[in-house]
Amino acid sequence: MTTTASEIERKAGEAKAAARRLSTLSTEVKDDALARLADALEARAGEVLAANAADLARGRAEGLSDAVLDRLTLSEARLRGIAADVRQVARLPDPVGETLEMRTLPNGLLVGKMRVPFGVIGAIYENRPNVTVDIASLCLKAGSATILRGGKEALQSNIVLGRIIDDALRAAGVPDGAVQVIESADRSIVSEMLAMKDCIDLVVPRGGEELIRFVEKNAQMPVLIGGIGVCHTYVDADADLDKARDIVVNAKTRRYSICNALDTLVVHAAVAPRFLPRIADSLGDRDVELRCDARAYDVIGERPNVVPATDADFGKEFLALVASVKVVDSYEDATDFIYRYSSGHSDAIVTENYTTAMRFLREVDTAVCYVNASTQFTDGGQFGLGAEIIDATQKAHARGPVGLREICTYKWIVFGTGQTRPA
Fold first, then answer.
1. pLDDT by residue (tens digit) across 1-28?
2. What b/e readout covers 345-370, taking b as 16+ CB neighbours within 10 angstroms?
3. Per CATH, which fold does 231-377 belong to?
């Protein structure tokens, strides 16, 4: 048995043993553990930031992109935000044991569903050390154990965060093994995890398309897919152009390295002559390169930040200060274009026409549809979920930001008064 194999096998076994006790853990114990964790993140910020600095230094030496380094970076402000998200999870209602859809059948049986934990949730992710805390806190509140395998880029950060989590949970009386952070950077551990269907009930990949497709192809347990964001904002013929400018600038530049950042701007031809030069100036001031189709390029003209687009610039997640631009003749053309190129993550329309807005919400097949707002809001914390385990883009049991309720499963419950089934 290899060292890496022994680590994952040992930790998976401990997580499975902890899951049974976690499923019946009281809300008070879980909330106390989360409160202790939030306090510890702030009190031990120096440890976390020192480890993160080492990860960043190694990442720069290895030539990681600015987008990856941004996702990897922790700061005192970001740690306070992570701690705030943990406290928000503690304040949310406990989903475990919640009953729903109860109804009485003609034979007198009372039938319904009860939310229950999944058991053990495995997460395989890249770059972002905040994911370690987000997933651990959500799964704890939802009564599931977790096995967390972060990327080598954030290895030291994740090791320290894992130890802080472990200390806080143990002090609150949470069963040992509830949160397992894998401390090996050996890539073979991912394949080990994906074969552990007897220990892991659900696996969540977060990272680039290569990682997600690998997990989807090789996992022997259910997979919750998400994260790949090719996000559009459509500026309609009836848009308020000042509002549109602010939305587009925020959607692209607030944080360009996240999966819900704007990738493609779609503009109705009726407003393109008035809007495109303005947005080119605003985005140019923020060092955004615009890759424009022929019609958009003709309207904007030659500028330092404007280049002709190629076919490869549409349907692409840039994760950089780059956006593609498309001019269309109608709402139908816009939605056809989005249907073709969207990854089903987050898409927006800017319009003052109520009918058009409602058509967009009904007709655009994406996990999160926006009217007159930036796609940067696709986030569990922003949706009142405290945090999220993933932004799911599949059409399974959960879609969009996945919070507490979505990482529970359910069982049917039946109350009788002595009923027996006739022969």
1. 445 557 889 999 999 999 999 999 999 9
2. bbbbbbbeeeebbebbeeebebbbbb
3. Aldehyde Dehydrogenase; Chain A, domain 2 (3.40.309)
